[in-house]
Design brief:
By secondary structure, the chain is an alpha+beta fold. About 35% of the residues lie in helices and about 25% in strands.
């Protein structure tokens, strides 16, 4: 009779069981011990069979150094191949076993085995062995099947636990990969460094939403826009994920381009609004922006426009924080020409701070309320430090204060600020 071809689904079950090559375990040793004692046999073992070897997960009455044998020598093969239990009084006369080449070397006569399974596939057997010819009773058979069922249950639990751990590891690996990609993409939407502006100290702070798997599109930027002129901008686009990233990139680079070719903040807003509308026809695709232009050629003068964004905040040298009123306008991308321009002159030691609404809309810890503009202004004042170049301390402290008083943020939070240092330029 030719040897049956290996069953790939059964071999997959063997692999998933994790039994091949695994160390001895007390629960399986107790089962082989119970089988030998209850069936009054000198030997018992649990074997798991792949396509080449029969691995002994547990043995009773045999040297512990013996852990496997080739499939061709194993009696386990007969149960696996025929798909049914085998209880034989004398292996030397049983047709299915009498040609096994190891009978005399092993000195066995009676053999009884039943399948140990995973997902309906026979992995191997729980068997008992006797050196004497004997008759196996129905009670013996029931004992063997009951103990094999316990062994199968233990293997299934281990397989499910391993599968769960592997799935969790794969999920974590995929999550880490996605977060790494998002972090890279998020970083690409922010300037790698801030420019050096004569007479100005410039700093920024950014915190992604607590759900690191969500790209929400808050950004800040600072760049030269002409001789002695600089642009400082903060913005927030609608949506999330890839679409938010695409819109953020479009807004950022449209702002940079428009700032080089148009005369003032209102014209720049109009140009970016047009770029968003020409780029796509999706309803509700818009961005809020606060754009400030600094002119350093004579002192430090400001012009700014807002497109549906929070007001810029003026922080005096003593730490008083007030929003700069005026220069109102709708978000970019909805088709409008209603942006107005505000202007001011920044005195030495005064600071302008721009932020996204992720700060003001942060949930207050322990309360069913948002932080709000008023409390945010208080935190800005508390974070102020009257010292040369302290704008970097201001942004860092403000970020820490917002984190301290609010719960985990569900939106990005961005800040960019600059302090006039005209007398020290």
């Amino acid at each position: 009779m030719s040897k049956p071809m290996p069953d790939p689904t059964r071999l997959d079950a063997v692999r998933r069981s994790g039994m091949i090559g695994s160390p001895r375990e007390a629960i399986f040793d107790e089962l082989t011990k119970a089988a030998a004692h209850l069936m009054r046999a000198p030997y018992a073992l649990i074997s798991i069979m792949d396509d080449t070897d029969s691995y002994w997960k547990s043995t009773f009455g045999l040297p512990t150094s013996m852990r496997s044998e080739p499939v061709a020598e194993s009696f386990c093969q007969y149960v696996v191949d025929r798909g049914s239990d085998l209880l034989t009084e004398d292996v030397t006369v049983e047709p299915i076993t009498r040609d096994n080449p190891t009978i005399e070397a092993k000195g066995l006569r009676a053999w009884a085995g039943t399948a140990v399974e995973l997902d309906g596939h026979a992995l191997g057997t729980l068997c008992v062995i006797d050196r004497e010819v004997r008759t196996w009773t129905d009670e013996d058979h029931e004992i063997l099947r009951s103990l094999a069922s316990i062994a199968s249950h233990e293997i299934r639990l281990r397989s499910e636990l391993t599968a769960s751990k592997n799935a969790a590891a794969r999920a974590k690996s995929e999550s880490d990969r996605v977060r790494s990609l998002l972090d890279t993409l998020r970083t690409s939407l922010l300037p790698p460094s801030l420019p050096d502006i004569p007479g100005v100290a410039l700093a920024a702070w950014f915190e992604a939403a607590a759900d690191g798997d969500m790209l929400l599109g808050d950004f800040y930027d600072a760049f030269p826009c002409g001789e002695g002129r600089w642009s400082v901008v903060v913005g927030d686009v609608c949506g999330h994920g890839v679409e938010a990233a695409k819109l953020t990139s479009l807004v950022r680079y449209s702002l940079r381009s428009a700032a080089l070719h148009h005369g003032g903040p209102a014209e720049i807003m109009s140009e970016v609004d047009r770029a968003i509308r020409l780029d796509g026809s999706d309803v509700g695709r818009f961005a809020t922006v606060c754009y400030v232009e600094l002119d350093t050629r004579s002192g430090l003068s400001l012009r700014w426009s807002r497109a549906g964004h929070p007001h810029p905040v003026l922080i005096s040298s003593d730490g008083t924080a007030l929003p700069l009123q005026g220069a109102d306008g709708p978000p970019l991308g909805i088709g409008s020409s209603l942006w107005t321009v505000g202007s001011a002159h920044l005195k030495d030691g005064e600071t302008i701070l721009l932020y996204t609404d992720g700060l003001s809309e942060s949930h207050v810890a322990g309360a069913d309320e948002r932080l709000g503009e008023g409390r945010l202004l208080d935190l800005i004042a508390q974070s102020h430090v009257a010292a040369d170049g302290a704008v970097d301390v201001l942004t860092t402290r403000l970020g820490a204060e917002v984190q301290r008083v609010s719960t985990t943020c569900d939106d990005d939070r961005a800040v960019i600020a600059f302090t006039a240092q005209v007398m020290r330029a």
